[in-house]
Amino acid sequence: MSVVDDGSVKHLPESAVDQRWKFLVFYLCFYGFMTQIRPGESFITPYLLGADKNFTMVEVTNEITPTLSYSYMAVLVPIFLLTDYLRYKPVLVVQSLSHISIWLLLIFGTSILAMQFMEFFYGITMAARVAYSSYIFSLVTPSHYQRMASYSRSAVLMGVFTSSVLGQLCVTVGGVPFMTLNYVSLGFMLFGLLLTLFLEQPKRSLFFNRSGGPSPLELDRMHPDGCKPAAPVPSRWRRSALFRMLRELGTIAKLPQLRLWSLWWIFNSAGYYLMLYYVQLLWNEIYPTTDNRKVYNGGVDAASTLLGAITAFAAGYVKIRWALWSELVIGGVTAFQAGLLLLMSTTSNIWLCYGAYILFRGSYQFLVPIAIFQIATSLSKELCALVFGVNTFFATVLKTIITMIISDKRGLGLSVHPQFYVYFAYFTLLAVVYLGAAVCLAVRHRWCKVPQEPAFVKELCSPAEEAPGKERSSEPGSVHT
């Protein structure tokens, strides 16, 4: 809108608003797509183990790769807070600079210390992903949140898919050396930095830069004015939206579905990313070829990304009573993943290992949108972001502890095959716990007396049956996966 000479406010025509919306959608999706084009990423491990760098398997497994978990945990909370305080764009610039640093170190670094710094910058880029997923919602109106989440997520997945296919074609068909792929990746990252500089600077953010005063939070809805304490809160920090939502986490943690899916997010995502960090080492140990044309990491990453997108899309059409069947579904998928890890640990056939990896990623991506919906369905956008931030932090802490014990040379320093046996045992234990909880829930539900209408029965009602007048306060897509 604009101000005319007499001081009145003149709203922009609807067509101008639509044009601005379309431009934002295009630019943000193009930015998200281009920043994923890193064709050398699927081949980092064979590059480090090959003639270009000539690191040993022990050095990469027990000294270089563990640094990623440590750096991610160290920077996650500061970046989460700085992202909101600085209003996203500066953190996106830091992310682009970190991407450039990664490829510069891969190209010119020759020591273990240089590769550890490379992993440190990689941890920064991973932690800074929250900046993009939060930034897109600061520029559009709530009515566009769902479409914006869909478009941006699709752009990122298409970027990962295109990058993996491009890398595989260059290696297998064109015979391009891994070093050349790294230079190509560096060029795309420099272009991504240029795109970042032209991003619009948002005027508001979720916690520290809230325009128009704080919006109603979960605390306001759960404690009406008449029930609130009369004593004023003296500290400005204690009056802040972030403090109130941190205090509210203790209340919402008592909600059964939110607690279950948060625990799934913490424990299963920790195991998922550990597998992701070390799977290229496993492939290299199963099939230690010196012919780069026969390294199919890029094609496997492309196939797993495509399957993950399909399963995530299909999850949106699964209609069951999640309050009753969540434990069984989670337990079944986790048991399936444990079986895939056992297959990856024991097989000597690289194609079976590739297939198990693709199915593992696809099954994980199937549950991610379900978890997002189950956690975010009754929370405000701000509180939802905080819950996912806390879940991710605890998952990172758990992942770091496991890394210190089994991977780091100062711990057990296991080679990659024994590590995958540990991951198999980890997922097997999780599956037993989930399936045991499902059995207990089924027994309790079976012997529940309907006429007495215990509180447990009300928990098992679907959200529509339990509170037909209750609406979601925000779109669940406001938080990335």
Provide structural commentary.
- The chain has 481 residues and is mainly alpha-helical.
- 71% of the residues lie in helices and 1% in strands.
- It has helices at residues 14-34, 44-49, 57-64, 66-85, 89-108, 112-127, 129-138, 145-172, 178-197, 218-222, 236-239, 241-252, 256-286, 297-315, 322-346, 350-376, 381-407, 416-446, 455-460, 463-466; strands at residues 2-3, 9-10.
- A two-stranded antiparallel sheet has the order 1-2.
- It is globular and about 60 Å long.
- The two termini are 35 Å apart.
The biggest beta sheet reads:
2 strands, antiparallel
How much helicity do the residues have? over 70%
Shape, per Cα inertia axes: globular
Please, how many helices?
20
Alpha carbon gyration radius: 24 Å
Mean pLDDT: 81
Protein structure class: mainly alpha
Instruction: Encode the helix/strand succession as letters.
Output: EEHHHHHHHHHHHHHHHHHHHH
Proportion of beta-strand residues = under 5%
Query: Going across the major beta sheet, what is the strand order?
Result: 1-2
Question: Alpha-carbon distance between the termini?
Answer: 35 Å
Detail the poorly predicted runs.
1-9, 212-234, 450-481
How many DSSP-defined strands? 2
